[in-house]
Write a structure and sequence with these properties.
- This protein has helices spanning 36-50, 57-65, 68-71, 75-92, 103-115, 121-139, 171-178, 183-195, 199-204, 234-242, 263-275, 287-297, 302-309, 313-324, 326-343, and strands at 10-14, 17-21, 28-29, 214-218, 227-231.
- The protein has 344 residues and is mainly alpha-helical.
- It has 3 domains: 1-51, no CATH class; 53-162, DNA polymerase, domain 1; 171-343, Intergrase catalytic core (hpI Integrase, Chain A, Orthogonal Bundle).
- The strands form 2 sheets. A 3-stranded antiparallel sheet has the order 1-2-3. Strands 4-5 form a two-stranded antiparallel sheet.
- The longest helix is centred in the middle third of the chain and has 19 residues, at 121-139.
- It is globular, with a radius of gyration of 25 Å.
């Protein structure tokens, strides 16, 4: 294949598709490998290195991709942001960087680009997030522009109307799902409902992460720079005791192997469809709110729960008031006060 003989090519697979770049952190090579279009695109990228036009916006994209700020992002974040940076370079690449120093003129152009994705508000806002981060890098440390023109452009997606943090699985919901789902799905649901871990972290969770007093696992969302520390309260110990140890990882599929990325969520959705043929409003990540209520009933404070969940403390308190009930919450506080008094 001709393309594979070209020096420095970097291959990236994302969401089932393969993308080629002239070099790691370099511009995307267009066309199918081995075609004249592919070779021409590669040669154009190489030529841009020898004769760069540092006044064009495309050069900012290349600088950001090669920067420590970008490289230190989690691998999953770079995998998602890479295609967006390509779209940004394709759309804005030939504009002069100086144009981005005139917010009142460039903002309408940025809004027009965002409008291409307006049918999916969260997608549009995600693209804006990537563009804004790159422009912030252009402000500091590059000093190419004085301010970030994305600042002041409101998000399309209304988080207040779509906030699911207070939607949780009740015990009856879990019991209903277990009537028809497999034991493997039941184990995953129980573990999610008692740890509050995201699906990606649950798939990585190994028996080696389970210590004497707590589960300690670096979280994927933080690029594994932050650890989730979940105390081993009795209900969680009971869940772990029910899961057979047939692999280094805790959760396994019916053939006793680890779940592949995305396969657990797909199997869960199928189980949920069987349990509720007419549909429901519960998602797998809503089990995190269920875990918050279990943490509280196990004796953790709202602040301690917020630290485990990486949520705001007032979000935890709203969940507690809504699902545990004021009476039960007050009784729990009285119990803790009495315990504290007995120790003095």
């Amino acid at each position: 294949m001709v393309a594979l003989e070209l020096k420095g090519l970097h291959r990236v697979r994302s969401k089932g598709r393969v993308y080629w770049y002239a070099w790691r952190g370099g511009p995307r090579v267009l066309g199918e490998p081995g075609t004249p279009e592919f070779v021409a695109s590669y040669n154009e990228a190489i030529a841009s290195v020898t004769t760069p036009d540092n006044s064009r916006f495309r050069s900012l994209v290349a600088l950001y991709k090669a920067s420590p700020d970008y490289q230190k992002l989690a691998h999953s974040t770079r995998r998602n942001w890479g295609p967006w940076l390509d779209r940004i370079a394709d759309h804005f690449g030939e504009l002069r960087i100086a144009q981005f120093d005139r917010p009142e003129r460039i903002r309408p152009i940025i809004r027009q680009w965002r409008a291409k994705y307006a049918e999916k508000p969260r997608t549009a806002d995600y693209g804006m997030q990537v563009l804004s981060r790159m422009l912030s890098y252009a402000v500091d440390p590059l000093g190419k522009i004085a301010s970030n023109p994305c600042e002041g452009i409101k998000q399309i997606y209304n988080h207040s109307d779509n906030d699911r943090s207070e939607i949780i699985w009740m015990d009856d919901d879990i019991a209903h799902l277990k009537k028809t789902c497999s034991a493997e799905i039941a184990h995953a649901v129980d573990l999610a409902a008692h740890t509050g871990l995201r699906a990606g972290d649950l798939l990585r969770l190994s028996w080696s992460h389970v210590g004497e007093d707590a589960i300690v696992i670096p979280t994927g969302k933080s690029g594994r720079r932050r650890e989730a520390i979940i105390p081993l309260y009795q209900a969680l110990r009971d869940v772990l005791a029910r899961i057979p140890k047939r692999s280094p990882v805790i959760l396994t599929h019916s053939k006793k192997g680890p779940w592949a990325p995305g396969s657990l969520t797909k199997a869960f959705d199928m189980a949920k469809q069987e349990a509720w043929p007419k549909g429901d409003n519960l998602h797998f990540h809503d089990l995190r709110g269920t875990a918050a209520t279990k943490f509280y009933l196990a004796g953790l404070t709202a602040r301690e729960i917020a630290e485990i969940m990486a949520w705001e403390e007032n979000t935890v308190e709203r969940i507690i008031r809504r699902y545990i009930g004021r009476g039960a919450a007050i009784k729990e506080k009285i119990r803790r006060l009495n315990e504290a008094r007995s120790r003095t």
